[in-house]
Write a structure and sequence with these properties.
Layout lengths: L4 E5 L8 H4 L4 E4 L5 E10 L4 E7 L14 E3 L21 E7 L3 E7 L14 E5 L3 E9 L2 E5 L9 E7 L5 E2 L5 E2 L11 E9 L3 H13 L4 E6 L6 H10 L4 E5 L6 H11 L4 E6 L4 E4 L30 H11 L8 E10 L13 H4 L2 E2 L6 E6 L9 E2 L2 E2 L6 E4 L6 E4 L5 H5 L45 E2 L2 H18 L2
Length: 490
């Protein structure tokens, strides 16, 4: 994997591994005689497989091909092998996950469609189940391949892969299994959900969930990209408090688009609409500025299917939602709503603000940058194509673009340096360049003028500050802080 990491995925026959070995400490042993600690990294689902992370030692990096380590609980076993070590699988050429639907099997594959916007024809591939059952590939887009389901029942874990057809067929190595159909568990279908891919966002998650739940988000779906902070604890606390937050373990780095394609199928029976948005982004409308309290109808009011606004008791809220509703005549067959973003800067902060992101950052760049979308899952194209949080839609469906006076996403992108620096280590997007390499320095995904060195630039605390914007800061203070003070009598 990137950064000389090695993932050791344990056979389903021995997972979860700790139940077999009483939570022993493990090592990765390499052919060079070197070893490195094997750190538990979670469990892959369907079937359950324990996964460990270890570093490829320095001498092992010099010898090609790289070979697989052994997982052992004792240094004495590091040099023992009863057969030659097989070649280590490479992340750049791998079938890494699969998902079975009512009609087909979706495979997620690295190394076949490597260039953005350039996809190989489905006829160049076949899918392989188990010992050689082959089916046709119906769609090939980005890292997503859709295969015809085989005509046998799944009664045990069966590996699934993809073959490049030709005079000398090549089978892509795989760690994926063909499993029964699976969906996100949900007692009832939510109208509006949020979906995001996260890595070490425990300190930010509560503020993000609490705010958006108050304006109408019913369910939060987190694709955990290998977090090693307190994310699980924070999620558990939120669930105990009544918030609908669900986590899906998605270990694979730089696979944001693939993860969102996965969610469009996995969550289809649990959510009607999903907004794809990051934990450092907050949805806000200037039309809410005079509201004395939030409403769970505020954000859903932009959706063509929103109903029930007559049940609102607060006249100000009713008026605001009615204004949005008056624009719905221009939203025929709309299945995706695009919301512009404002990018906020460090706002003189040196560390993470004690009062939270919204209260701590109030200075932004003047012009809007990019958009985030809310999409109707039934309208997502069969290919599952999405780029920068926008999906391709089935024919006959339209996209509605809102302006910054209607609704905006406050993107707290450039935070205090210790927080921003953490982004250097891991980017989840499939097509974003590695910030640590001197490539594509003009990309919009880079901080302007920052370059590729994770060293705090001079004057960072005042960068990207062109407009002071206290709209959401003042609104949330009135909704939550002042309301709490009035309630407590302080």
């Amino acid at each position: 994997m990137p950064d000389w990491e090695v993932y050791v995925i344990v056979s389903p026959d021995f997972s979860p591994l700790q139940t077999h070995y009483n939570n022993s400490s493990f090592l990765c042993g390499f052919d060079t005689g070197e070893e490195s600690p094997a750190v538990p990294a979670g469990e892959l689902p369907f079937p359950v497989r324990s996964i460990f992370n270890c570093k490829l030692p320095s001498r092992a990096r010099r010898r090609l091909p790289f070979t697989q380590p052994i997982l052992t609980s004792s240094s004495a076993n590091v040099s023992y092998r009863n057969s030659p070590s097989p070649e280590l699988l490479r992340w750049s050429f791998l079938v890494y996950d699969s998902l079975t639907t009512d009609d087909d099997v979706v495979l997620f594959v690295k190394g076949l469609n490597n260039h953005q916007g350039i996809n190989r024809e489905p006829t160049e591939f076949t899918c392989i189940f188990g010992d050689g059952v082959k089916t046709a590939v119906a769609s090939s887009v980005q890292e997503v391949f859709r295969c015809t389901r085989p005509d046998f029942a799944v009664n045990k874990p069966i590996k699934v892969s993809i073959e490049i057809v030709g005079p000398t067929p090549i089978v892509v190595p795989t760690v994926a299994y063909y499993s029964p159909q699976r969906k996100l568990a949900s007692p009832e279908k939510a109208n509006l959900c949020f979906c995001t891919m996260v890595y070490n966002v425990a300190k930010f998650l509560r503020e993000w969930v609490l705010y958006h739940s108050k304006i109408g988000v019913e369910k939060f779906i987190l694709y955990d990209n290998g977090s090693d902070d307190d994310l699980a604890t924070v999620v558990e606390e939120l669930v105990e408090e009544g918030y609908n937050v669900q986590t899906y373990f998605w270990l694979w780095p730089k696979t944001q688009e693939a993860g969102f394609s996965h969610s469009a199928i996995f969550a289809k029976d649990s959510c009607s609409w999903i907004m794809y948005i990051d934990v450092d982004e907050f949805v806000y409308s200037p039309s809410w500025s005079n509201l004395t309290q939030p409403s769970k109808l505020l954000l859903p009011s932009i959706l063509p299917s929103s109903e029930g606004i007559s049940t609102v008791n607060n006249n100000n809220i009713l008026s605001v939602i009615a204004q949005v509703g008056s624009r719905k005549s221009t939203m025929k067959n709309v299945a995706q709503i695009s919301i512009p973003c404002y990018e906020f800067g460090p706002s003189k902060q040196k560390v993470h603000p004690a009062k939270g992101v919204v209260q701590g950052y109030n200075c932004r760049r003047k012009m809007e940058n990019r958009h985030k979308s809310v999409v109707f899952l039934d309208a997502v194209d069969y290919s599952l194509l999405n780029v920068i949080h926008h999906f391709k839609l089935k024919p006959g469906y339209n996209v509605k673009k809102l302006n910054v006076l209607e609704m905006v996403v406050n993107h707290y992108k450039y935070q205090a340096w210790p927080e921003f620096k953490a982004k250097f280590r891991r980017r989840v997007s499939a097509y974003v360049v590695d910030w640590t390499k001197p490539l594509n320095l003009g990309s919009n995904d880079r901080a302007p003028g920052l370059g590729y060195s994770p060293v705090e630039p001079k004057g960072w605390q005042r960068k990207f500050c062109e407009v002071y914007d206290n709209g959401l800061k003042d609104l949330t203070w009135r909704w939550f802080a002042l309301a709490k003070m009035n309630y407590s009598g302080n």
